[in-house]
Write a structure and sequence with these properties.
Layout: E1 7-13, E2 16-24, E3 65-70, E4 73-77, H1 79-84, E5 92-99, E6 109-117, H2 123-136, E7 139-146, E8 149-158, E9 161-167, H3 177-180, H4 190-202, H5 215-229, H6 250-264, H7 295-302
Helix pairs in contact: 4-6
């Protein structure tokens, strides 16, 4: 069942337009919710909205948006004034440019939304734009106002619909220079790099986000369940991973890692043995099995000889 949309409006490419709806592609409804409660009563605490100076409660009708122009100095902006400056992007996503998806820096990605046609009438125009973008392998850049803020969105075909990812503003992205400038240049020797690449190959596989479950969330749920059933019973804690000791040799650490990966690899399934031939001498079975028999069996064999066999055991070829 489709949930409630976060935004409704029009999706437009030049003169082609269609009605669309925006749905959040992420959600946290299944997570355990924690609130601040009164330790004595167990009741949830309601925080009052108060004036920062007078400390008096402020009723809802007296609350208004204020834009900070100086320290502790604000200009009140009324709802009607906000309505008067609405932009076209409030109700329309107008594609302004098409780009290669790979050109967009991953740091700008913030939140994904599903974009779908709002009604049957809009499906044809929606499909035309979607399929044309898919054929040219392009993503569109457009603006929309969501939660009273104009945002740039990267829009690209996704299955039967489209994916609209909100992008961060350019001034929100910090330069990495200050963070990386103290990292000294180092070119790893070929043998070290070879071991490191082998580790990567051994630990490579398809992306499966379900594997990386929230272990803290699971431990928190277990804690709450244990306290809910027996309050005095201590809940199982989360074991902290052991902090590895300082390894003097990087090469030694790489070698140990490779050895650990080999040891952890599942053993190959043993091939089925061929049935032994009745009366065959040791070493003459179908697969030439030379595995020594147990002590009691050896003792029994030493007191008798197979018919026609020479004294002693013949070495298996």
């Amino acid at each position: 069942m489709v949930g409630r949309s976060n935004w409704k409006g029009h999706f437009r490419l030049s003169l082609v337009s269609c009605s669309v709806s925006l749905y959040s592609a992420v959600g946290y409804t299944g997570r355990l919710k924690c609130h601040t409660i009164n330790r004595k009563t167990g009741n949830r605490i309601n925080e009052e909205v108060v004036d920062s100076v007078t400390r008096e409660p402020v009723p809802r009708e007296d609350r208004v948006k204020g834009c900070e122009v100086d320290k502790d100095e604000y200009v009140a902006v009324e709802e009607s004034e906000l309505e008067s400056i609405k932009l076209e992007s409030t109700h329309t996503i107008n594609i302004e440019r098409f780009v290669d998806r790979t050109e967009v820096d991953e740091r700008y990605f913030e939140k994904p939304y599903y974009l779908a046609p709002q009604d049957k009438v809009s499906r044809e125009a929606f499909a035309v734009i979607r399929d044309a973008m898919r054929e040219k392998a392009k993503a569109g850049l457009g603006r929309l106002v969501i939660y009273r803020k104009e945002r740039v969105a990267l829009i690209e075909p996704f299955e039967k619909g489209m994916l609209a990812t909100l992008l961060r503003a350019d001034d929100e992205i910090r330069s990495p220079t200050a963070v990386f400038e103290e990292i000294a240049d180092f070119e790893a020797p070929d043998d070290m790099r070879s071991l490191a690449t082998e580790l990567i190959e051994r630990n490579s596989g398809p992306f499966d986000p379900a594997v990386f479950e929230d272990r803290y969330e699971q431990a928190l749920i277990a804690l709450v369940r244990s306290k809910g059933s027996v309050r005095a019973k201590s809940a199982p804690g989360v074991k902290e991973p052991k902090t590895p000791s300082n390894v003097v040799s990087l090469m030694e650490a790489l070698k140990r890692s490779i050895q650990a990966e080999k040891s952890a690899a599942p053993p190959k399934a043993a091939e089925p043995k061929a049935p032994a031939v009745k009366g065959a001498r040791k070493g003459e079975s179908g697969r030439g099995d030379t595995k020594p028999a147990s002590a009691p069996v050896r003792a029994a064999r030493s007191t008798r000889k197979a018919p026609g066999a020479k004294a002693g055991l013949r070495k298996a070829s």
